[in-house]
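Exercise: predict the structure of this protein bound to 2-aminohexanedioic acid.
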Amino acid sequence: MAKAKIAKGNGKAKSSVKKYHNYIGGKWVGSASGEWFDNVNPADTGDIVGRFPKSNAEDVDRAVAAARESATRWRRTPAPKRAELLFRLGEILRTNKQRYSEEMTREMGKVLTETGGDVQEAIDCTYYTAGEGRRLHGFTTKAEMPDKYAMCERQPVGLCGLITPFNFPMAIPSWKLIPALVCGNTVVIKSGEDVPLSTINLVKACEEAGIPKGVVNVVNGFGEAGAALVSHDDVRLISFTGSTDTGRKIAEQCARDNKIVSLEMGGKNAIIIMDDADIDNAVEGSLWGAFGTSGQRCTASSRLVVHKKVYKKFVQKLVERVMALRVGNGLDKKTDVGPVINQQAMEKILGYIEIGKNEDKAKLMCGGGHLNKGKYRNGYFIEPTVFADAAPGMRISQEEIFGPVTTIIPFSDLDEAIEIVNGVKYGLSSAIYTQDVNRAFHAMQELYTGICYVNSATIGAEVHLPFGGTKGTGNGHREAGTQVLDIFSEWKAIYVDYSGRLQKAQIDEVEI
Ligand code: UN1
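Solution:
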């Protein structure tokens, strides 16, 4: 996934711009350095959404100290009681869904229906995961010695550092925060620098729900704050979603410090369209999978692998639909595709379009341009772009672009298609359109990804199923579902000997 590295802002900020704060130990505070950064609307860079504290290691230190201080009380709060507060949080999120969605579109760019979906995903995650407060099942088993009891239970891992990206500004923080809390951990969140307001909205809701001071802390800022969190001695776990480059550095640091680390990084997801597919349905799915969120999803359908027998028809229908997409400000109800997140992302995406045209020499079917005139002049807009006749090894077929660009690759036999889909360094999501149950099951078995869809695009994961990928996408963990509990809790095996004497497992003979 692409990750912003530069501060947004065009110097037009006025003193009337609203200031937001870090949340540390239950207090809303500025940064230790007194510095601020602007959160700019990517559809209109003259619109400053808010001003946020630019935090450094000192702010992180204070947030970690607050999280440490509240750890024992929170850990000892019974899990069903922790969950009650989370259910209350779910209610607050539901009540404010509209406002959160509008503010999210303003800071992030994606269209209102999608930011509504983002907030809804946070609501779903909160209700679903809060339910775990009354489960968090352990198990009992039989001990090998008489008069001895054996059982296993989950315990919190401790202090968690959560580092979140820009593309799902409330959903992804909730995927990390809610399970961390239900398991009894305290947290410090480093918000995504392009979308800090949605994290602040989530955390204000936590405050309103009555989650005790110090349990949830937020520092806003850039890589400096993130790096300080990752290397802090009192942080036990880092959960990160973002670019593969940053993820690798985090993993290296965590390995040196022996911290638990969960990573969710890039994707180069593909849809297979078989010759027996319902072509209109496959076109709809491809359009949504490739251009929803302006292609800025880890799960975006950035490759369409199409059977030669239906290739011409599919390409023609898809291109027709792509050319009709309306690009614009996500707050405008008529917009289909919003801007990309910032200047750096835009340059990277336009760079890949150049690679597609020149180095790779794929066929540009539509789009390819930077929209920078008229209503587009103050935003980061790119025309929805389709490349066809691409080879599987081309850079545009292999590397994550994270923008409104998709690449069509022809094939002639299902196993060849599966090889193409699996032939990248990532393994997040895959899909197949076919009416043939045998082909569908063969693909479900052979596609080596963490998520797989049949007759649907590569996006649209639901919160009660595990989310994550194979190979370069992650490091073996899964968020969401009940599987996420394995990130935020550790198993404790407990033996109770009620024989009243020393019994040596593996050594004493037991009379039968
Ligand atoms: C992402 O792709 O970065 O599956 C997260 C989906 C969303 C989450 C996507 N529920 O499309």
